[in-house]
Design a protein that fits this description.
Number of strands: 28
Structural class: alpha+beta
Number of helices: 14
Strand content: 15-25%
Radius of gyration: 34 Å
Oligomer: single chain
Distance between the termini: 58 Å
Shape: elongated
Helix content: 10-25%
Largest sheet: 10 strands, mixed
C-alpha cells in the first residue's frame, strides 16, 4: 500500500502543473449546502475507496461518517485564508466548494484505508445498534468489478473512482491524488486506466450500480444469539458489582463483533464474498420477458425458503468445501465440471422444500449447483455440480430439483408456458399434461426402465413473450439439466441443406422412436443436446425397402461429442444398426455438426433371400462413391450397393465438388467440412 505523508506547506508540482497552497476554505454554511446537495455522490466516492476488509456494514457507515466529518474543516465564516491545499475546480465542475469537499473525502478515505481497524475510533458517527446495513447485491458485472477493486490498492480505487465517477481528466486526477498524500499518483492512475480499459464503456454504468450505492441499503439483524449472551453477561456483571457494594459500572454491549483480520490475499477476500448468502444475486421476476439473454441469468429466485439465510449459508459452505467434505456431504460431479469454490457471488435460482428435502439451486455463470438436505432421517446432504455454460432457451429450460423412486421433479424456466410428458417409444400416443406448482416445480416424471419399454421425455412450449413460441423435447439422463433432442430430416430431391429442428413433429417423433433406446447409454456423460441426422436414404436390393442412414451426435457442455453412425431398414419399428468403426471415434470430431456436414459410411447387409451385399451411402454433396479392398466398385451419386461374398474392411472414398475426396466413416475423422 502506498504511504500517506503529510502534505508540505509548499507548492506541489506534478508534470508541470502547480497546485496552489493557500486557497480559502469555504464557509461552514456553503460547505453544508454543497454536502447536502451532493451527499450521495460523495458517499459513493468514499465507499469505493474504502477497503472491503472493513466488512460491508462498517465500510458503509465509515463512508457516511467521513463525508459528514469533512464539514469540520470548513471555516465558521466566509473570511480568512487557510493553509489547507486543494485542487482548483475544473471546467464543468459545479463549483469550488464541491471540489474542496471531494478532496477532503478522498484524503480522509485514503487515510482511513491505511488504518481500517481504527476507522470507528476516528469516525464514531453515524452508529447503528442491532442492525447490519449493506448495499443491495448487484448483477454479475458489478460483482466482478467489486472483486477486481477489492484486489487493488486504495490509491488505485481512488484514481478509478475519480476518473469514472467524477469524470476528472488524467492530470487533475493525478494532482488530486498527490494533494491527498499519494506518493506515486502516476502509477496508481496507470493501473486504474488499465482496469477502466478492460471494462470499456460499461465502467461508468457498473460503478453507478446498486453494488456501489451506500445510500440505498438493506438491513438485517446482528447475531441475535450473541446479543442475548452479551445482555445476560451484562446483567450478571452488574449484579455482582452491586452485591460486592463496589463502584457501579455500566457495561455497554458493542453492536458488532470485532472486525475480522483482513484476508491475506485477494482470493481469500473473493471467497469470503462468494460464501456470503446476503450477496447472492437475485434476478427481478419479470426480467426474462424483456432481455436478449434468455438463459439462467434471467431466472428469478423462486421457492418458499429464499429468505432462509441459514440454509443458503450451509449450501454455500458445502460448495466451498467441495470434495472430501468432513461433514459427510455426498458430492457428485458431472464429467468435465470444475469443482473449484465459487469465485464471485452466485445467482440464486431456487430455495424451497421439495419431497421432504430442503433444496437450493445456484448458478455461477458456468455451473449449476444443487444442494439438498433431508428434513428427517439419517441420510446426509447432497451436493451436485454440473456445467451449464452457454445455456439458452432450450438447454436452460429446466433443472432437476428432486429425485425419488417415484421420478424426478424439475424446476422449469420462467419462459415455459406449457409442459407435458410423452413416451418417445410411442410417438402416436398424445403427450400427457404435466402439472406445475406456483414456484415452477413439476410433478414427478417417471424414469425410463432398463428394458427400454418406455422412454419418458418432457415436451414443453416457450412463451410468446420472448417471441420463441415453439415446443421442444427434453429427456432426463440423470443429470441436473435434461438433454435437448433435435432432428435433421433426410435431404429431399432438389431441397436445400436441412438444419436441425425440434423433434416434436410427427416425422421427428417417429424418428426418435427408433433411436430412443440408445439414449440411456449417455447417462452421466455430461451431454447437453443430441441431434439425430438422417444424412441419406437408400433403396435396398431385391426390393427389400428403403434404408435410412443416420448420424447421432451427442454434444457435451464442453463442445466435445459422442458420434455414432447407423443404418435402419424399412419399417416403423426398425432399430438402428451401428456401422462398425475400425478405431474409436475421437471426442472432439466435427463429424455431423455444422462444421462437418459431409459423411460417408458403409456396412455389409444380408437380404431376406440370404444374399450378401455391401452397402454404402453418403451425404447430399457427394457425386460418386468408390469402394476398394475386399469389395471393388464405383457408383455415381451418393449410394452404392454391391453383391459380394467377401468380408473384411472396405476402404470408401467419396468425391466432393471442388474439395477433393472424402474418406469413409472411421477411416479419417475431421475431413472436409462445410455446408
Amino acid at each position: 500500500m502506498q504511504s500517506h505523508a503529510p502534505v508540505p506547506d509548499t507548492d506541489i508540482s506534478l508534470a508541470g502543473s502547480t497546485v496552489p497552497t493557500r486557497p480559502s476554505r469555504p464557509s461552514r454554511k456553503d460547505a453544508e449546502a454543497a454536502l447536502v446537495e451532493h451527499y450521495p455522490r460523495l458517499v459513493r466516492l468514499a465507499h469505493v475507496i474504502l477497503p472491503p476488509s472493513l466488512g460491508r456494514h462498517r465500510r458503509l457507515l465509515t463512508a457516511h461518517a467521513l463525508v459528514q466529518k469533512s464539514l469540520s474543516a470548513a471555516t465558521s465564516s466566509r473570511s480568512g485564508p487557510t493553509s489547507d491545499p486543494t485542487v482548483p475546480p475544473q471546467r464543468g465542475e459545479p463549483g469550488p466548494v464541491l471540489a474542496w469537499l471531494r478532496q477532503r473525502v478522498v484524503r480522509t478515505a485514503l487515510r482511513t484505508a491505511a488504518r481500517p481497524r481504527w476507522s470507528f475510533v476516528w469516525h464514531p458517527l453515524p452508529a447503528v445498534l442491532g442492525l447490519r446495513l449493506f448495499p443491495r447485491a448487484g448483477a454479475d458485472g458489478e460483482v466482478a468489478l467489486e472483486s477486481a477493486l477489492a484486489a487493488a490498492t486504495p490509491e488505485v480505487r481512488a484514481a478509478f473512482a475519480l476518473r469514472v465517477l467524477e469524470g476528472l481528466g488524467a492530470r487533475p486526477t493525478a494532482l488530486l491524488l498527490a494533494t491527498a498524500g499519494v506518493t506515486a499518483p502516476d502509477e496508481a492512475l496507470h493501473v486504474a486506466e488499465r482496469l477502466r480499459a478492460d471494462l470499456g464503456a460499461d465502467a461508468e454504468l457498473l460503478l453507478h450500480g446498486v453494488e456501489f450505492d451506500p445510500c440505498t441499503v438493506q438491513a438485517r439483524p446482528t447475531d441475535l444469539l450473541r446479543r442475548r449472551h452479551r445482555t445476560r453477561l451484562t446483567t450478571l456483571a452488574a449484579g455482582a458489582v452491586l452485591l460486592a457494594a463496589s463502584t457501579a459500572a455500566v457495561l455497554t454491549p458493542r453492536p458488532e463483533p470485532p472486525a475480522p483480520a483482513p484476508p491475506a490475499t485477494a482470493l481469500a477476500a473473493a471467497s469470503a464474498r462468494a460464501s456470503d448468502p446476503g450477496l447472492l444475486v437475485r434476478t427481478p421476476g419479470e426480467l426474462w420477458a424483456d432481455t436478449a439473454r434468455v438463459d439462467f441469468t434471467a431466472w428469478p429466485a423462486r421457492g418458499g425458503r429464499t429468505g432462509d439465510m441459514a440454509l443458503l449459508s450451509r449450501a454455500l459452505d458445502a460448495w466451498a468445501r467441495g470434495n472430501g467434505d468432513p461433514a459427510g456431504i455426498r458430492v457428485t460431479v458431472t464429467p468435465g465440471t470444475p469443482t473449484t469454490p465459487p469465485a464471485v457471488p452466485a445467482r440464486l435460482l431456487f430455495a424451497g422444500t421439495v419431497d421432504d428435502s430442503a433444496v437450493v439451486l445456484l448458478h455461477d455463470g458456468g455451473r449449476l449447483v444443487r444442494y439438498a438436505e433431508p428434513l428427517a432421517g439419517p441420510a446426509g446432504a447432497l451436493l451436485e455440480l454440473a456445467r451449464a455454460d452457454d445455456a439458452g432457451v432450450t438447454t436452460g429450460a429446466a433443472v432437476a430439483v428432486s429425485r425419488t423412486p417415484g421420478g424426478a421433479r424439475f424446476l422449469l424456466a420462467p419462459w415455459i408456458d406449457e409442459s407435458a410428458v410423452r413416451d418417445l417409444r410411442r410417438p402416436d400416443v398424445p403427450a400427457r399434461r404435466l402439472p406445475v406448482s406456483e414456484d415452477g416445480v413439476t410433478d414427478p416424471v417417471p424414469e425410463a426402465p432398463g428394458d427400454c419399454h418406455r422412454v419418458p421425455a418432457l415436451q414443453v412450449r416457450s412463451s410468446t413473450r420472448i417471441v420463441e413460441d415453439h415446443s421442444f423435447l427434453l429427456v432426463d439422463l440423470g443429470e441436473l439439466a435434461p438433454v435437448h433432442l433435435t432432428w435433421t430430416p433426410a435431404p429431399g430431391t432438389g431441397a436445400p441443406a436441412r438444419q436441425p429442428r425440434e423433434a416434436t413433429s410427427a416425422p421427428g417423433l417417429a424418428a426418435w422412436a427408433r433411436s430412443a433406446c440408445a439414449l440411456p447409454e449417455l447417462r452421466g456423460t455430461g451431454v447437453r443436446a443430441v441431434n439425430r441426422w438422417e444424412f441419406a436414404r437408400q433403396t435396398l436390393p431385391e426390393r427389400a425397402g428403403r434404408a435410412t442412414w443416420t448420424c447421432t451426435r451427442a454434444e457435451g457442455w464442453d463442445g466435445r461429442a459422442r458420434v455414432a453412425v447407423a443404418w435402419e431398414g424399412s419399417g416403423a419399428s426398425a432399430r438402428p444398426t451401428p456401422v462398425p468403426v475400425p478405431d474409436r471415434t475421437p471426442a472432439d470430431t466435427a463429424a455431423c455438426s455444422r462444421f462437418g456436414r459431409h459423411l460417408l459410411a458403409g456396412t455389409y447387409w444380408t437380404a431376406p433371400s440370404g444374399a450378401r451385399y455391401f452397402l454404402a451411402a453418403g451425404s447430399r454433396a457427394l457425386t460418386s462413391v468408390t469402394a476398394r479392398g475386399p469389395v471393388s466398385a464405383t457408383a455415381r451419386g451418393q449410394v452404392l450397393a454391391v453383391r459380394t461374398n467377401a468380408g473384411g474392411q472396405v476402404r470408401l472414398t467419396g468425391t466432393l465438388p471442388g474439395s477433393g475426396e472424402l474418406r469413409g466413416w472411421g477411416e479419417e475423422h475431421g475431413g472436409p467440412g462445410g455446408p
